[in-house]
Amino acid sequence: MSGLLLRLAGPLQSWGERSAFTPVRDTAPFPTRSALIGMFAAAEGIGRDEGGLDRYQDLRLTVRVDRPGVRLVDYHTVGGGFPKDRTAATSAGSNKGAAVLTSRHYLSDAVFVVAVTAADDTTIERLAAALSRPHWAPYLGRRSCIPDEPFLLRRHVDDPEEELRTRVPLSRPAPRTRDGNGQENQTIAVEFLSEQPPPTSSTDEPGHDVIDVNDVPVSFAPHSRSHTGRRIHRTRVPVPQSLAGPPHTLMQRLIDYAHLEESA
Question: 175 in a domain, yes or no?
Answer without folding.
Answer: yes
